[in-house]
Design goal:
79% helix
């Protein structure tokens, strides 16, 4: 593992998903899952998200679109919260879901709206 990428990734991961969430994930990792946690933090957050070519808000919008398209709703919920932390608005989330509906189908858009409503309600935005 590249320690510099991990350090950058850990900082970016905490900034987006919240330090409490990230620390909880790392604390609950064991010998079986910790290698993945470390490499995923270094690779996804340190390498993939570790430069400033694409800003955090745009990156969050891209992530919501891709994760929504894949139908990974638990991750979509996590990244929906992170998107709010990165400045993505309720209206922008709605527009992202519209695109998901166009390219991935109405049932997937309905799932995204269901999860987004939960996250936005928790954030007192609806």
């Amino acid at each position: 593992m590249d320690q510099t990428r991990f350090d950058i990734g850990l900082q970016r991961r905490k900034a987006t998903l919240g330090a409490e969430y990230v620390e909880k994930n790392l604390a609950s990792a064991d010998d079986f899952t910790m290698p993945f946690q470390k490499e995923m933090t270094a690779w996804c957050w340190g390498f993939g998200g570790g430069d400033d070519t694409i800003n955090a808000k745009t990156r969050s919008m891209m992530n919501l679109t891709m994760i929504g398209a894949l139908g990974k709703m638990a991750e979509w919920e996590t990244h929906c919260r992170g998107a709010l932390n990165n400045g993505v608005s309720k209206d922008e989330i709605r527009s992202i879901v519209h695109v998901i509906g166009i390219y991935c189908g109405v049932p997937q858009a309905l799932e995204c709206f269901r999860v987004a409503r939960k996250v936005l309600t928790e954030a007192n935005l609806i």
